[in-house]
Each structure stands twice: as structure tokens, then as C-alpha cells.
Amino acid sequence: MGVGTLGALVHGCSLPVFLRFFADLVDSFGSHAGDPDTMVRLVVRYALYFLVVGAAIWASSWAEISCWMWTGERQSTRMRILYLHAALRQDVSFFDTDVRASDVIYAINADAVLVQDAISEKLGNLIHYMATFVAGFVVGFTAAWQLALVTLAVVPLIALIGGLSAAALSKLSARSQDALSAASGIAEQALAQIRIVQAFVGEERAMRAYSAALAVAQKIGYRSGVAKGLGLGGTYFTVFCCYGLLLWYGGHLVRRHHTNGGLAIATMFSVMIGGIALGQSAPSMAAFAKARVAAANIFRIIDHKPANAAGIELDSVTGRLEMRAVDFAYPSRPDAPILRGFSLTVPPGKTIALVGTSGSGKSTVVSLIERFYDPTAGHILLDGHDLKTLKLRWLRQQIGLVSQEPTLFATSIKENLLLGRDSESATQAEMEEAARVANAHSFIVKLPQGYDTQVGDRGLQLSGGQKQRIAIGRAMLKNPGILLLDEATSALDSESEKLVQEALDRFMIGRTTLVIAHRLSTVRKADLVAVLQGGAVSEMGSHEELMGKGEQGTYAKLIRVQEQQEAVNAARRSSARPSSARNSVSSPIMTRNSSYGGRRLSDFSAADLSSVAMGDGGRQAVAFRAGASSFLRLARMNSPEWGYALLASAGSMVCGSLSAIFAYVLSAVLSVYYAADPRYMERQIAKYCYLLVGMSSAALVFNTVQHVFWDAVGENLTKRVRERMFAAVLRNEMAWFDADENSSARVAARLALDAQSVRSAIGDRISVIVQNTALMVVACTAGLVLQWRLALVLLAVFPLVVGATVLQKMFLKGFSGDLEAAHARATHVAGEAVANLRTVAAFNAERKMAGLFEASLRGPLRRCVWKGQVAGGGYGVAQFLLYASYALGLWYAAWLVKHGVSDFSRAIRVFMVLMVSANGAAETLTLAPDFVRGGRAMRSVFETVDRATEVEPDDPDAAPATGLRGEVELRHVDLAYPSRPDVQVLRDLSLRARAGKTLALVGPSGCGKSSVLALVLRFYEPTSGRVLVDGKDARKYNLRALRRAVAVVPQEPFLFAASIHDNIAYGRPEATEAEVVEAAAQANAHRSQET
């Protein structure tokens, strides 16, 4: 930061220093007009000074850009790491009430990018511009202190206008970030559960919710444009009026011989550059305003201290658990108590089974023992010590958890098994033994890379049963004193369940174990059974004791219902065998295959279909349309706003022209200062002062027009881009989502960042380009008219500057792509950790997940050093060539004057006007990093929008799926998933589910049961054979109409962040209140909603 600050300061001061030399040169022109040889000698001297200034700018700009880019990357990396560390340290309840998981992903993506932009390039720019502002006034005081004092009087007014503008922008930015965060949460939620969305044909509903959230941010963006336009317009209004005052007072001083023309113009130029620099700092101030809001979101989590940090560690643990008069309600629903006066004692080394209806609080007990939450009343004790007095990390190290929904992370099987236990403390043999006991070793060793096999996003490379066995092995490897088994075998087929249950029975010996189970076989083996009803223990005893109560006991009634249901299920299975089932299922498919769910043979609580997703992994690359980043195409997308763009462009052109006219006025005044007649000088200066007053009014009006309409264009385009990207993503077939680059976290990141980068390039950046183009056109025209020879020489060197900058852009483009891709990988790691916070917390894996996140950020940090060197060096070369062109132009101007081809007045006007245009060109070139990011973002946008889905969901020629009887038949079906085309999942499978009948699919985990469900829903297409619905090929039906006729209940239930009513009616939004209540009642959920 020190070197970067020094570079920015030197770079910023160099232009006022150049102007001081220029003032001496001008005075040499005026003082030695009658001595051409002396004049040329002095001009050559000052031309060499200009080269020295150019070299200083080369070195300082190199230091400024490279150091600030590296500093910004390093600090943002540290901020991201600290943020994720802090987020993973928080209590689980914190994410129920204060922060959503989607907020964390948005902070790591968009908020961190805003902060990085502010503390790198924008902070360097601010220091640079402020140095220019200060140096300009210093030069002004040394050249003509009277003029500097007059200028100083209006500086507070300029600062006041800038401060008011920044305050307004800060408030609007905070509101905009909140709205965009809400929209990002909606998109991420839909993408994370895309199978549910598509199965229930909820794409349009998700699209409407996303669009409505974006509309809120869009309206706030309109107001930001008004605030920005008035702020900059007011600044330039004040600056031009100030210069009018300076021109008049400068003439007054010259007429009274208090100064000469050169010194007077030095003050004016210095103040002019200082004022422009102050205005140019406004975009940096706007970036800081956005970054302050983003940083507040980040540091709110970093600074938040969890309540469970302190505590003691026990020397030994016997495992006695007690819950005394516990009351509990989830923080998100404090008015809906789950446990009331709950008391339970688990003797050390014993196994207690918790049974009860759905919603009775069984899983809540597990959450309280893990201290995901603390009870609102009562106490939970371990060996006589309240859990609140124990060190949380130590407590969770004593507990092994296998939850109902197995959670694996996108790393190797080995790393997933070692989760919660340091790799140094577990040997390969111990890990394999734990996997063997969990009945997982046999399928792991058959995988291509064994224990080093990557499991994919959310473990989707494996079937549901395979994931659960790895989760059980993970708990076994931890070797805890207390076991919490929350339906640990629910995802396994009957054969695997038996083997794993035997392993669990051995593993539970000598350990205090709480088992939540719906199967009678599991409950019978427990030492004690606790029946939960109404948030309390209604019965407790051994299986035999509770069954002895007969029909008077709640437990006995539950067991009778289960036995009857199992008998009905067995009868259904025997009567629903397919007429032909030639698919081999004797051994499981050990590679990833779609387990959209395994049917549970027990129907104790509900009929569950598991929703284990289709595969993820080495999927073939999708060919996208090349050249989609064209600005012309983006302009066509923005065609509804062409009228706004024309008005905005007109405002930009007028603002740019005003700068050229302003330079011409100053150069004209310079020639007037050397006029011999004082009265003529006074009249001419008054005329130019009146002109500046008129220009100040125009600047106020047209700056407002420029930013109001450009922001409207940008906001509308951003909303349209996000909507089209989201709509295109929702149309993609399921195989597209299985690719690693299309995981939910990465797609959500592209939605958030790509549109923002496009907005940055199209909004303010295009505005600056149009403005500076107008400046150059006006300046070049004036130069050619005044003295075409000098103008051509100055213009001839411009391609050197442009060529150097193009080279700089090429290098920037290459490096920026790698950096963005690396950040996307880091975001994916963070997204998994936060989405599965309970698993991370239960296994004390916060440091390990944070370590994986930190490792994924090291690559961008290393490459940023080279990126900064290339960017800084390229920009420095461009700046040096710019000042070299000034030196050449001045030497040639002197030569023209010496030989009588031109006079001093024309030469200096051409030079000053073109100098201002060159400064505008240099400003435009500094926008190259933004356009590089915008260009890459545009390619990503159009690649997403242009992709043609392989399964058209809205084929108008397809048959409507109305009045279906419900007969489903598979004829000689083969299936291999696109990610693993060489692995056959189904082989010549034929089966029929008759209309109105129940067909049960059974078999080992991974044999392809859920693949059948995926084929019926057309998540995938068979590689050969046909899937028939009512005797017609399923591909001939309209896809969404077909899915409307199918209902699915996944094993891993997911509810959207909406009301219970909306979740029940998700698949049928037009359902009446009575229909929703009836559906809830049939699902045995209506009573729990009322409570």
C-alpha cells in the first residue's frame, strides 16, 4: 500500500508539475517572440522536461496500478477468508433469524467484489485524483497566490455538493444491495432445488418471483442516476463559474502587472486540472459508497461473536444425558413451541429409541444435544454438567451424528470420511475399517479412483444409499462416546440396511446412543423407548414393557399401525411385480447414477421417494456460440431503451464538447493576456466569462440528462440480462445441471456477477467513452481548422498510445478470465459449507472447510502479481508516449513559429485543445480493466442465453398430457448418464405399472431404482428403448404438461422460503384455500400447522 500510495501521489502530482513547466514555456513564447533562436532553445529545454515528467509518470503509474491491484486482491482474499471463518463459527440459530445462507454466498460473491474494486483500483484512483487536486492548488499558489486564494474560497461549496451527492448515493446503494440480495436468494433457492422446480413445473413461478425482486432494485437504480447526475452537474457548474471568476481576476492582475500571462495561465490550468480531478473522483466515491454498504454486510458477520465460544472440558465422559423440564421453540417461530416440559434421562452406555409421529420433536432433541440450539427453559446435562458450561467444540467432538439426510462435500471420499478428524490422527487402515463396518468399502474400492474418487456437488456422483453408508463410516471413524442416529438407515435398501444395522449394533455397544427410527426392528433392540407426543415424553420403558400396556398405550398403537402397514406393503409388492424385468440388479452400480429416490419399505410416517440428484462430474463440454460478446448484440437486447440511449448520448456529447470549448476559451484568454491594449483585454475577458457562465448552466443540465438516462439504460439492461439468463437456465435439461461448472452455487454467482459487470461496462463506461469521443472530435476539428500542420503531427502520435493500450487490454483479458474462474471455485466451496452448516458444526469441520476455501483463493492471489505488472507497465508506457507526443508537438510548434508558418496564438490554441483531448483519451484507456471484465461477462451471458436445451419443455407440436389414465411402461430401456456414457445404469429393462395400481421397485442401493423415476419425469432420456405413458412415447407429450400429471415426494424434503400455504400449493398455484387445507389434512400436516 505504501508503494502504491507513493506511485499514485507522484502520478497525480505529475500533471500540475507539467503545467508549471508549460507556463514557463508559454512565457518564453511571449517574452521572446522577437528572438526565434532563443525561443526555440527554451522550447527544446522544456520539451526535455516534459520527457522527464513522462518517465516519472511511467514509473509511478506502474507502481500505482500494480501495487493497488495486488493489495486489493490480497485484502479481499483475507476478507473472504475471515468472513467464511466467522460465518461457520456462528450458532445455527443465527442462520434461522439473522442471516440466510444465500446472504453468505452473495457476500462472498458480489459484496466482496464491490469491496475489492473500491480498495484496489478505485482507491488508487482517488489518491491519484486528490493528489492532482492538491498539487494543482500548490502550483496555483506559487504561480499567482491571489488567484489561488480566490479559487480556495469556492472549494467548500464544491466539497459540499460532492458530500451531499455521496450521502444520497450511499443510502440508495444500501437499498439496492438489499434488493439484489433478495433476488439472489430467490434464484439460488430455485437452482439448488432445480429437480423440485422442474418436477412441479415451477419455472414460471420462480421467474416471476425473481423478476419482482429485480424490479425493486431497478427502481432504486433510477433514483441513483438522478442523484449522480445532479451531483456531478452541480460540481461542474461550480467549477466553471469558478474559472470564470479566475479569468476575470487574472486579467485584472495582468493589467496591473502583478503577474504575467504565463504565471496566470499556470494558476488557471492547475485549478482546472484540480477541479476536473475532483470531479473524476466522484466515480470512486460512488464505488466507496457501494463498498461501505457491502463491507458493512461482511463485517457484521466477522464482528459478530457467537454465544457458545467459552466453556470447560471434562477429563472423562461416561455418557449420561439428562434433559430436565426443557421448553423449546425455534427462533424463527418463537410462538410455536416444539417441546414443553420435556424430561428424559439416558443412562451411560445405553441405547434409547425416540419414536413418535412426524413433528413430535424427535429431531429437535438431537439438535438440542448437539447444541445447534439452546432450550428456552430447562437444562440439558452431560455427566451432571449443563451443556452451556461445556466448550462447544469439545462437546461436539464427543458426539457422532448420522442424520436423516446424508451430506457429502464436493471433495474425495477420503476427505469426507476424515471430516471432523484430523488426517494425521487416522490411518488408512482405520479409515478402511470404518468404511468396511459401514458396508461402504466394497463399493468404494470398485470406483475408478477408490477412496480418492471425487463425490461431486452435494455428493451427486453417488446414490443415496452409498452416500448414507459413507456418512455412517464418517461417524464411526470419529469414535465418539455418544451416538445420535437420526434415521441413519432410511436411505438404504433392505439388504444394505441389514448389514449396516448389524454394524451399528456392534458400534453402539458401550456408547450412549439416541436413535430416531421408524422401523420396528430398530426399536426392539433399544434398551429404552421414549414415546414423544405433544412436545413431551408420554411413555418410556423397554419395548416389552410398553407393548404390555396393550391398546391403552400410545407406543403399542403405533406398533400395530406399522405392522399393518408393512403387511399391506408386502401384499402390494407381491402383486405389483412387472411382467418383464430383465435389467440385472444383482450387484449395485458402484459409479454415480441418478438416485432420484429409493422407495422405503416401511410407510410409518409417509411415503418417501428419495430425491438424490442425477450425476455431476466429468461431463462433456457443451459447445456454445462463439463471438457472443458483441456490443452490437447487447445493443439489440437494449433496443427498447434506444431512445433513452440517444438522449443520454446527447448529454454525454454536450458534456464532452464543453471540455473542448473550455480549453479553447482558456487558450484564447492566454493570447488576450499578451495584448498590448488593456481595454481590449478587459472586453475580451468579460466576453469569455459570460460564455463560461452559460457553459456552467449547460453542464448542470446535460450532466443530469447524461446520467439519468444512461442509468435507466443500464438498469433496464441489467434486469433484462438477469431475467433472460435465469429463464434460459431454468429451461436446461437436468444433465446440464450435473456438470461441475453448472452447480447451483456457480450458476447463482454468474447471475449475480455477470450482469453486474455488463452493467458496469454499459452504464458509466459507455457514457465516458461517448463523452470523450465528442471531446476528441471537437478538439481535432478545432485543431485542424486553426493549424492543420501542427494538428496532424499531434494526431500522428496517437496510434502509439492506442497500440500500447490495446496490448495492455489483451494481457488484462487473458489474466482476468483465470482469476474469475478461480473465484467461482472458491465460491462453490463456501456455498457447500454454508448450505450444510449443521454437518460442518456437528463434526467440528469449520477449520477444514475454511482451509479448503483458503486454498482455492491462493491461485488468484499468486496470479494477481503478474496481472498487476502487465497492467501497470502497459499503462505506464501509454502515458509516457502521451507526454512524448506533447514534447514533439511543442518542438514542432516552435519550429512553425520560427519559420513564420504559424503565430504564437494559433499554435498554443491547437496545442491546448488537443492536450485536453489527449487527457480525455488517457482517461478512457484507464477503463480497460472494466471493459475486460464486461467483455468476459457478456460472453458468459450470451453463452447461457444461447444454449439450446436438449429437451424442449414447451414444444407446441407435442401432445397435451390431459386425461391420462396413469399407465407407465418401459420397453427394453438402456440408460447411461451423460456424465458417464461408458457406465450402463439400466440394461434392457422392461416393466409396466398399470393404471391405478402400485408398483414397488426394490433392489440394492445403486441398482437403478431411482433412474426409472427420473426417466418417467424425463429428467433424462434413455439411450435406447422407450418410456411409454398410456401407450404413447413420453417424448411425444408436452414436457411440462406431462410433469403436471406426475407428483413426486422426495426422500430429502425441501421447502421454499415462503408460507406453508404456498409450499403446499407450489405445484398448483391456483388451488383454493379449502383445497390446500384438505391436502394438508390428508398429509397429516394440518394439525401441526394450527399449532
UniProtKB/TrEMBL annotation:
<dbReference type="GO" id="GO:0010329">
    <property type="term" value="F:auxin efflux transmembrane transporter activity"/>
</dbReference>
<feature type="transmembrane region" description="Helical">
    <location>
        <begin position="229"/>
        <end position="249"/>
    </location>
</feature>
<comment type="similarity">
    <text>Belongs to the ABC transporter superfamily. ABCB family. Multidrug resistance exporter (TC 3.A.1.201) subfamily.</text>
</comment>
<dbReference type="GO" id="GO:0005524">
    <property type="term" value="F:ATP binding"/>
</dbReference>
<dbReference type="GO" id="GO:1900459">
    <property type="term" value="P:positive regulation of brassinosteroid mediated signaling pathway"/>
</dbReference>
<dbReference type="GO" id="GO:0009640">
    <property type="term" value="P:photomorphogenesis"/>
</dbReference>
<keyword id="KW-0677">Repeat</keyword>
<feature type="transmembrane region" description="Helical">
    <location>
        <begin position="790"/>
        <end position="807"/>
    </location>
</feature>
<dbReference type="InterPro" id="IPR017871">
    <property type="entry name" value="ABC_transporter-like_CS"/>
</dbReference>
<dbReference type="Pfam" id="PF00005">
    <property type="entry name" value="ABC_tran"/>
</dbReference>
<feature type="domain" description="ABC transmembrane type-1">
    <location>
        <begin position="3"/>
        <end position="290"/>
    </location>
</feature>
<dbReference type="InterPro" id="IPR011527">
    <property type="entry name" value="ABC1_TM_dom"/>
</dbReference>
<protein>
    <submittedName>
        <fullName>Uncharacterized protein</fullName>
    </submittedName>
</protein>
<dbReference type="InterPro" id="IPR003593">
    <property type="entry name" value="AAA+_ATPase"/>
</dbReference>
<dbReference type="InterPro" id="IPR039421">
    <property type="entry name" value="Type_1_exporter"/>
</dbReference>
<dbReference type="GO" id="GO:0009926">
    <property type="term" value="P:auxin polar transport"/>
</dbReference>
<feature type="transmembrane region" description="Helical">
    <location>
        <begin position="685"/>
        <end position="710"/>
    </location>
</feature>
<feature type="region of interest" description="Disordered">
    <location>
        <begin position="569"/>
        <end position="594"/>
    </location>
</feature>
<dbReference type="GO" id="GO:0009733">
    <property type="term" value="P:response to auxin"/>
</dbReference>
<dbReference type="InterPro" id="IPR036640">
    <property type="entry name" value="ABC1_TM_sf"/>
</dbReference>
<feature type="transmembrane region" description="Helical">
    <location>
        <begin position="151"/>
        <end position="169"/>
    </location>
</feature>
<feature type="transmembrane region" description="Helical">
    <location>
        <begin position="766"/>
        <end position="784"/>
    </location>
</feature>
<dbReference type="GO" id="GO:0009741">
    <property type="term" value="P:response to brassinosteroid"/>
</dbReference>
<dbReference type="GO" id="GO:0012505">
    <property type="term" value="C:endomembrane system"/>
</dbReference>
<feature type="domain" description="ABC transmembrane type-1">
    <location>
        <begin position="646"/>
        <end position="933"/>
    </location>
</feature>
<feature type="transmembrane region" description="Helical">
    <location>
        <begin position="46"/>
        <end position="70"/>
    </location>
</feature>
<dbReference type="GO" id="GO:0009958">
    <property type="term" value="P:positive gravitropism"/>
</dbReference>
<feature type="transmembrane region" description="Helical">
    <location>
        <begin position="642"/>
        <end position="665"/>
    </location>
</feature>
<keyword id="KW-0472">Membrane</keyword>
<keyword id="KW-1133">Transmembrane helix</keyword>
<dbReference type="InterPro" id="IPR027417">
    <property type="entry name" value="P-loop_NTPase"/>
</dbReference>
<feature type="transmembrane region" description="Helical">
    <location>
        <begin position="907"/>
        <end position="928"/>
    </location>
</feature>
<dbReference type="GO" id="GO:0009637">
    <property type="term" value="P:response to blue light"/>
</dbReference>
<dbReference type="GO" id="GO:0048443">
    <property type="term" value="P:stamen development"/>
</dbReference>
<keyword id="KW-0813">Transport</keyword>
<dbReference type="GO" id="GO:0008361">
    <property type="term" value="P:regulation of cell size"/>
</dbReference>
<keyword id="KW-0067">ATP-binding</keyword>
<dbReference type="GO" id="GO:0043481">
    <property type="term" value="P:anthocyanin accumulation in tissues in response to UV light"/>
</dbReference>
<keyword id="KW-0812">Transmembrane</keyword>
<keyword id="KW-0325">Glycoprotein</keyword>
<feature type="transmembrane region" description="Helical">
    <location>
        <begin position="126"/>
        <end position="145"/>
    </location>
</feature>
<feature type="compositionally biased region" description="Low complexity">
    <location>
        <begin position="569"/>
        <end position="588"/>
    </location>
</feature>
